[in-house]
Amino acid sequence: MSTRRSAAIAAVLLGAAPAGCEEPLQPVSEAPTLLAEAGDYTQWARPKNRAERQPVVAPHGGFVDIYINDVVVADQAMVLPEGLPAWSDEAMVVLAGHDAMEGGSLVQVAVMQKRGGVWAWEQYDGSSDEPRFSGRPDVCVGCHSAGEDFIRSFRLPDPPPEE
Hints:
globular, about 20% helix, six-stranded antiparallel beta sheet, alpha+beta, 4 helices
């Protein structure tokens, strides 16, 4: 039997499915954005060296607040003989860029998350919930490659001091 004829027979048989299986198909939804996954990131922990808004010379706004999810918090608490060589999967960092040290307007939100050993980024202007870009943009990868496992604002945990 030819492949074309087999496909035609299968189409007819599938079309004759019982009435109980004819529920309307649900639209395929797009994966949630990293920002949507982060939720209310302003309630997250902050890195020890970034407990408050800091002035920066970076493309994220003149003053930034940095928030870290519980995966990063747990990683920072690890004490391993060799230190921590890389951040764990599902680590997420959110950077909120402002135009002033106190108060000020939100001018940018940047989100990064590690999945399958690879970092993904999204960047938003301060008034939108649609990313300006996402994935592995060259601008993010190029700049962040200078950090420890792509994080520039704080370090991976060091090995414990020798006694």
